[in-house]
């Protein structure tokens, strides 16, 4: 086991916290959007698809800056949030989670959509002939069948969220204990003379967490696939 | 077939473009973020005198020093403090004979222009009482950036590092700190006087006493790769000339009289 200093542990735990919150926030909206994009028939569907994928292709610092403009205390969303609920997102752990959630949103949508496209429409049609309503069909047939995609998406987003850098540092700044996640702590260490040892330790932790997350996603996908009676 | 002809045409077009003469290659300047506005203007003046426009890369001096250490193609390094220049000098990346310090600055407290009222800053001012819960003071990261280090020294001098350290919004460099104050995200910012003066959305509310922090002194030097580059030498001479001193002063920098 690598010995970490107290503030290094704080960065690791904060990263886990932020990644977990980001997945919690984005999971249900991501499933909804994946559903709309995969099954919906409405004008602007392709535009929605493109918008959802923006965080994958736009520089993260742009996303962070956009969030700062929208959710800052003078932004069109941030101002009312601050006035009505006293909720400030800039410089807070919640803000770091929001930035991370936006960045990993497309990862969940993609995985869920893939899971959804694997669902045999024949099964849903069968449920309908047996008298199941739309909500009933979704909850008892579609949702269980697409659950491997949802879980895999959530775990992938969690693993990616541990490493989100640009959007977080732009939107939530680099405050030890509050917004200084693992990648930000690594960045700080690389900027500090003699920080190489710290950077190397934290990089190793980051690597381990990311690989574990990805392996977990794979294991879950296979296991669920088997449960649902499909070859892995 | 048409495609091949197009490619051939494109290829001959590229190769026929006039290549700049080697001697006229632009000089690459790695400069502290706080020098941004003044250097942009000096770069234009340099160009007006018939020289190729310098290529600027602005960032925290710490980031630039680390990049030079990793072999980044800088010709001129302009650091916001001596310690990062020492850092690259100790690692033999600069031409020691060219190193000089002719530029100074002051440390000030700024607030968003819409919410700025001047205050008297002494050793006994309790900065924390000026902040509501959740409000923060933006400055560059004291862990590495020169501005943050000066800010930390000043806060320690006031005996308030313990109280204010956790309330800092630590940014990559001074320009991000300015943005956060300008947007009203941070209640105050600790920045250089030149930034306070040249940024629309912020107002200086107090100056830190000169004795509260180490003297703010920029260090310039050519890198080893530029040692035999006449254009780089000329640019450094120009930037430290009396003509340029007037421009530096106009932006608020301190120069020897």
Brief write-up:
The complex is a heterodimer of chains A (232) and B (257). With 232 residues, chain A is mainly α.
Oligomer: heterodimer
**Order of helix and strand elements from N to C terminus of chain A:** HHHHHHHHHH
Distance from first to last alpha carbon of chain A: 33 Å
Structural class of chain B: alpha/beta
> Radius of gyration of chain B, rounded?
21 Å
Q: Note the beta-strand portion of chain A.
A: under 5%
Query: In which range does the helix fraction of chain A lie?
Result: over 70%
Helix proportion of chain B: 25-40%
Mean pLDDT of chain A: 89
Spans of at least 5 consecutive residues with low confidence of chain A: none
Would you list the SSEs of chain B in sequence order as H and E? HEHEHEHEEEHHEHEHEEHH
Strand arrangement across the biggest beta sheet of chain B: 2-1-3-10-4
Q: How many separate helices of chain A?
A: 10
Please compute the radius of gyration of chain A using only Cα atoms: 20 Å
As a percent range, the share of strand residues of chain B is 15-25%
Greatest chain-chain contact: A-B, 20 and 24 residues
Mean pLDDT of chain B: 88
- Structure annotation, total helices of chain B: 10
Coarse morphology of chain B: globular
- Described by the principal axes of the CA atoms, the overall outline of chain A is globular
Question: How many angstroms separate the termini of chain B?
Answer: 69 Å
Describe the protein's architecture and organization.
The complex is a heterodimer of chains A (232) and B (257). With 232 residues, chain A is an all-alpha fold. Chain A has 10 helices and no strands. Chain A has helices spanning 6-39, 45-57, 60-71, 78-85, 93-117, 121-129, 134-161, 166-172, 182-191, 196-227. In chain A, α1 crosses α9 (182-191). Chain A starts with 5 loop residues before the first helix and ends in a 5-residue tail after the last helix. Chain B is α/β, with parallel strands linked by helices and 257 residues long. Chain B has helices spanning 2-16, 36-48, 61-69, 82-90, 146-157, 161-164, 174-182, 193-198, 230-239, 242-250; strands at 28-32, 55-59, 76-79, 100-104, 107-112, 137-140, 168-171, 188-192, 202-207, 217-222. In chain B, the strands form 2 sheets. Chain B has a 5-stranded mixed sheet. In chain B, strands 7-6-8-5-9 form a 5-stranded mixed sheet, with helices on both faces. The A-B interface holds A 68, 72-74, 88, 90-92, 169-170, 173-177, 188, 190-193 and B 60, 62-63, 66, 87, 134, 136, 138, 141, 143-145, 166, 168-172, 176, 180, 183-186.
